Amino acid sequence: MREKHSILVVDDSVESLDLISSQLLGEYQVTTVTSLREARQRLEAARYHIAMVDLVLPGESGLDLIGEITAKYPYTAVIAVSGQASIETAVQAMKLGASEFIEKPIRNLDLINILVEKTLQAQWLISENKRLNAMIHKDLETDLIIGNSAPIQSLIQKVKKIAALDTLALITGETGVGKTVFAELIHRNSPRRQRKFVAVNCGSLTETLLESLLFGHKKGSFTDAHRDKIGYFQEANGGTLFLDEITETSLAFQVKLLKVLESGIFRAVGSDSDIMSDVRIIAATNKDIKAMVANGSFREDLYYRLNVINLHIPPLRERRDDIRILASSFVQEFCHKYKKDELKISPGVMSLLLNYEWKGNIRELRNALEHAVILAENKVIQPEDLPETIVGETQDHDIKYDIGDQNWATAKADFSRYYIKNLLKKTNGNILQAAALAGITRENFYKKCTKLGIDWRDYRKSGENENGGER
Q1: Fewer CB within 10 Å of terminal CB in the chain, N or C?
Q2: Cβ contacts of residue 293 below 8 Å, gap of 6+?
Q3: pTM of the entire structure?
């Protein structure tokens, strides 16, 4: 039987304490206190996974406690709770590190469980990322970020088997999935690890320049050859040469490359003598190389020579389990790079990340998190910190972002309308999917649409069923 997560609830209202604790008891270990003094005593005596803190207490401010928890107890997540605080106070709570905010009176009690579970998942990211890094560092010599999904773990097992062998490998997968990372992972765990790992993007170079860069050239062999220059085959001698986008090379160049792979001998441009090279070749492509072999645009003999071991890396949208780990790792990386205090990822942001298509794969995810860390003003990354392409542009111009003259009810209604419409656009009006993304029931989602004056049918594609996604 697993140990229950512990939750500290701080509220001066006995009624609120009874309501929250009765909703959570049984599934969680709940401790309730009515003052900041008691809360501080409890936090010093025991470890809590979550602290639910009322922002307005008699003669005290819950904001003080939130700041202390963030600074002294980073393993404790905070959910701010209040029915009296202004929207500015709620924003301040988020800036101090609160992951979520619940408004009292809490009419939908299920919302308590939903937010607690989302917050626990966010906290899990931190410990899981440390565990994964420790596991990878123990088994493989690397500080590279990879992932923890079943497909990636299967690839890591294959890397463990082939790294020590001097076999050629062909890595396939879409742009941005991490082909270079896996090539470097193989090198770092091979007997060649003490020598150079040299990566070349064949698709960004002309055939003449690629030949010169790989094989080197002699002075005077062409117009700009003002001196002798060694090529990457010599530079990587004893190490690993990674040829990315290998399918972008010409058939004529492929003949020359095949000769080097078979004999280990090449000749610099303009030279009349051969050079021997001892390199391990790892190639990669984002194209359907089998189809290119079939239509004659890539040499069949070179394909079979390179494809001794194939590592296919699936796109990020097919291994969404990796998004949590990667996102957490990238945030840590960029917090260190830009000298920021450690930032957390709010459950709302994680939901956006998990449901985005990531056509640019890991590279796009990494750029999005760098963007978020740079712009983040709070201790918790919020949706507005992400690039607009992730959050989704809206055509609703009636939403007020200047909250200075709004009360809490108006601001909440505006945001709710914005949030619901974006979910409907993302799911093409599929109520089941939209409700799942929001973490609420289908019935509750219908009610929100009605209350906010939103007709979900406006977001359905023509010809699709009219029952909100049910069959």
Answers
A1: N
A2: 299, 300, 303
A3: 0.62
